[in-house]
Amino acid sequence: MSMLRAIGCKVGWHDWGPVGGDVAGAHHTCRYCDKTKRVDTGKPPEAHDKSAIHT
Protein backbone atom coordinates (compact mmCIF):
# COMPACT_ATOMS: atom_id res chain seq x y z
CA MET A 1 0.00 0.00 0.00
CA SER A 2 1.42 3.38 -0.95
CA MET A 3 1.95 6.16 1.55
CA LEU A 4 -0.80 8.34 0.03
CA ARG A 5 -3.27 5.45 0.04
CA ALA A 6 -2.46 4.73 3.70
CA ILE A 7 -3.11 8.37 4.63
CA GLY A 8 -6.34 8.34 2.59
CA CYS A 9 -7.64 5.30 4.45
CA LYS A 10 -6.71 6.88 7.81
CA VAL A 11 -8.85 9.95 7.08
CA GLY A 12 -11.76 7.88 5.74
CA TRP A 13 -11.21 8.07 1.97
CA HIS A 14 -11.62 4.35 1.34
CA ASP A 15 -11.86 2.73 -2.08
CA TRP A 16 -14.90 0.52 -1.51
CA GLY A 17 -14.95 -2.63 -3.60
CA PRO A 18 -17.99 -4.49 -4.90
CA VAL A 19 -20.77 -5.55 -2.57
CA GLY A 20 -20.20 -8.93 -0.95
CA GLY A 21 -22.64 -10.93 1.08
CA ASP A 22 -22.64 -13.50 3.84
CA VAL A 23 -24.93 -14.67 6.62
CA ALA A 24 -24.57 -11.32 8.41
CA GLY A 25 -25.69 -9.32 5.36
CA ALA A 26 -24.24 -7.32 2.49
CA HIS A 27 -21.07 -5.33 3.00
CA HIS A 28 -18.32 -3.41 1.18
CA THR A 29 -14.61 -3.95 1.80
CA CYS A 30 -11.91 -1.36 1.19
CA ARG A 31 -9.54 -2.58 -1.51
CA TYR A 32 -6.48 -1.37 0.40
CA CYS A 33 -6.94 -1.57 4.18
CA ASP A 34 -9.64 -4.34 4.35
CA LYS A 35 -12.00 -2.22 6.47
CA THR A 36 -15.61 -3.29 6.01
CA LYS A 37 -18.89 -1.40 6.19
CA ARG A 38 -22.43 -2.68 6.05
CA VAL A 39 -24.66 -1.82 3.12
CA ASP A 40 -27.90 -0.20 4.23
CA THR A 41 -30.63 -0.77 1.66
CA GLY A 42 -33.28 1.00 3.70
CA LYS A 43 -35.48 -2.09 3.65
CA PRO A 44 -36.09 -4.50 6.53
CA PRO A 45 -34.46 -7.95 6.26
CA GLU A 46 -36.33 -10.45 4.14
CA ALA A 47 -38.55 -12.73 6.21
CA HIS A 48 -37.89 -16.44 6.17
CA ASP A 49 -41.60 -17.29 6.18
CA LYS A 50 -42.60 -16.79 2.52
CA SER A 51 -46.14 -18.07 3.08
CA ALA A 52 -47.07 -15.00 5.18
CA ILE A 53 -48.92 -17.18 7.69
CA HIS A 54 -47.09 -15.70 10.70
CA THR A 55 -47.23 -12.01 9.80
Automatic annotation (TrEMBL):
Name of this protein: Uncharacterized protein
Species the sequence originates in: Nocardioides panacihumi
